[in-house]
Amino acid sequence: MPSPRKQPVESRHGPAYPAPVERLLTELTRLPGIGRRSAERIAFHLLRGDAESANRLAKAVTDVKSAIGHCAVCSNLTESSPCPVCASEKRDRSLVLVVEQPRDQIAIEQTAMYRGLYHVLLGRISPLDGIGPEHLTVADLLARIDDPTKNAGGVRIEEVILGMNPTVEGDGTALYLMQELQSRPVRVTRLARGLPSGWSMELASKAVLADAIEGRQKIKE
Amino acid sequence: MPSPRKQPVESRHGPAYPAPVERLLTELTRLPGIGRRSAERIAFHLLRGDAESANRLAKAVTDVKSAIGHCAVCSNLTESSPCPVCASEKRDRSLVLVVEQPRDQIAIEQTAMYRGLYHVLLGRISPLDGIGPEHLTVADLLARIDDPTKNAGGVRIEEVILGMNPTVEGDGTALYLMQELQSRPVRVTRLARGLPSGWSMELASKAVLADAIEGRQKIKE
């Protein structure tokens, strides 16, 4: 009968996977949202698969770093600077929609209903995470407004649309930008808030209903 | 006022990230447990970080495929075949503990309480997932038993310990192996089931308590 008090060896001192597997697990667990267990699942998936698909993944990782940069005008991710949107002469360059992330810009582009330019902040102000305006591309936005040569085509910006997420941090970021834009000769608007199309009213939260009432739109005088 | 019926463009037809980012997202979403959102988080993390760490990840992915193989004796992951455990003359080569996955072997090694060899099945029988014994290393295990020259050091295997996970599929796999080993001249045992050391009895499920009662150990005649 084994002694009842024997304790297992601490895992960090014990044997482990072969060194190349451990190195891969270390690199994988550095990624956001990947814990040790997920890293193991991914590593075993790669070990089971063919070398071709592992190489494609490795190449995609290195390529993305060498081929992608930020647009000198709007800070969005791009292969060429200025990015295709800033470079397009068909866009209204006096109109700039400010968003938090590249994916927000994509979401707006996919509606095919906006013809102006963008400015990507690359985040939102979040004091709890230690993220202030100096960590975002706020200074680039203000420079674009103050100096038309820094905007696409040298066009003066006439309207700035605030398109932050409708969250506490998004609202805080919008408030900060509003203060910065107060004294500047530009119109400032923000995306409408209200009932999300396709939802049912009974699912809407109090905050959504309050937005819908406050921002009600006239359909007949 | 915008028309109330306008629908957003389908996301797969709309604009997307620059091509290298999309290629990375495609490769990342092929990995188990990584959806589009997680892939975006990882891609942005890599884009924000330095090229050095992205290159380390890429290299770890390719290295793991080129440097890691399976031990010819026990099928465990290894840089050299036979693996260090099978190659060690200090291990009892007449004793083989059969486990499902490399991580199970590591868990046992970390206890530093087992001095025999291993056999890694690389999975468990799971009819619902279409995994049968032919997808595992069962044939290699039987060959090791039937032909001592296929075991480490040419030693005849005297005892096989079944160390599958205490799950429905683990039990099914153990049952299958038991049938295969029935007619072979080896002792067959399985890892003990019972109360997990360090737990409280009131947390134990009915199945755990039933195992503990059925497998009760004599401490006085």
Fold and architecture overview:
Two copies of one chain form a homodimer. Chain A is of the alpha/beta class and 221 residues long. The first copy, chain A, has a domain at 91-192 and 207-211: 3-Layer(aba) Sandwich (Dna Topoisomerase Vi A Subunit, Chain: A, domain 2), CATH 3.40.1360.10. Chain A is 39% helix and 11% strand. The first copy, chain A, is built from eight helices and six strands; from the N terminus they run H-H-H-E-E-H-E-H-E-H-E-H-E-H. In chain A, the strands form two sheets. In chain A, strands 4-3-5-6 form a four-stranded parallel beta sheet. In chain A, strand 1 and strand 2 (77-78) form a beta hairpin. The longest helix of chain A has 17 residues, at 51-67. At the A-B interface, helix 1, helix 2, helix 3, strand 2 and helix 5 of A face helix 1, helix 2, helix 3, strand 2 and helix 5 of B.
